[in-house]
Amino acid sequence: MIRPISIVRYERLYLASFVLGLIVSAMSWSQRTALVAANPVLSQVSWILPTFQVIGIAVTLLLWYFTARSPSVAAKWIVVVLAGLSIIGVGLSLASVARGQTTIGTTSMISFAADALYVAAALHLFKADAKLWFGELPDADEPSTFEDMSHDR
Prior knowledge:
This protein is mostly helical. The protein is 70% helix and 0% strand.
């Protein structure tokens, strides 16, 4: 099946969000390693941060593959749930800024942009051509599974 335009757009937005997420990770790496080192329990397992980063990259790429290249409804809904969690995270971050607990810096702005792209990507999964891609709508080229019956019988 030829990939529909909604899936192509989804893929571009999703991968752009992924790249921005990697940039945010690189920009905040020293902060995160300092937090891990400051915790007495976590400082003993210094491998944990790189391991979680690699797992996160693997999951992101698997979700990309099973939505944009080999359609899976389960992967689609995982992406949608993660987009919803992303919206909640942005809301909490903005509430923290509004209360004066944190400030918005370059890393935060890039992170917000990555989240916005991720949500925009997830919205493309609900367009009609994307639903056909995932097999959620009957294909117009296939014969109907319903029998045409006249109401005059």
